[in-house]
Amino acid sequence: MADKRRFDLFADFIVTRFPAPRVFDVAGGQGRLNEALTRRGREVTTFDLRHKHLPVRYAQRIFTVDEPCEAELVVGMHPDGATRVIIEYAARHHLPFAVVPCCSDNGMPYNPWMRHLAEVARGAGFGRVEEVTLSMDGRARVLVGEPAAR
Predict the structure, then answer these.
(1) Closest CA to 139 of 53, 73, 75, 79
(2) For the whole model, what pTM was predicted?
(3) What is the per-residue pLDDT across 20-63, written as a single tens digit (0 to 9) for each?
(4) Residue 57: inside a domain, yes or no?
(5) How many structural domains comprise the chain?
(6) Are 64 and 74 in contact (CB under 8 A)?
(7) Sequential DSSP letters for 12-44
(8) At CA 105, angle to CA 74 and CA 117, rounded to 5?
(9) Cα distance between residue 101 and residue 72, in whole Å
(10) For position 107, which CATH number holds?
(11) 89-127: per-residue pLDDT in tens?
(12) Residue 1 lies in a domain
């Protein structure tokens, strides 16, 4: 069972680590991370296909690398198949990202998937790629990418 504190713990990590005032929350489900980040003073847009969601800023569509860039940070909490898109979008727009993968979109086991995502980020030109673990039950490893200096 997923840790009920996961959205608050990830939101605390995000606001402590990144000064970004505008955030894209990709594959954000009902918008719980959006809600947690909004309470912490961030302007967040959640992208997902759900019809039922919280009363937060919500774009009911699939997020693609072609989305206009109106954020300073891209995040995902257990975004399933959108994990790699988050990294690719952040690379294209020279933004940092923070993602908590829960599973791979290609059937790869979790640990190799995490290593693969880190390599994708490095290959996309991120100057710093690291892993941080949130103090919660379940999938708690955050992959963080920060663009190389221009």
Answers:
(1) 79
(2) 0.95
(3) 999 999 999 999 999 999 999 999 999 999 999 999 999 999 99
(4) yes
(5) 1
(6) no
(7) HHHHHH---SEEEEET-TTTHHHHHHHHTT-EE
(8) 55
(9) 20
(10) 3.40.50.150
(11) 999 999 999 999 987 667 788 899 999 999 999 999 999
(12) no
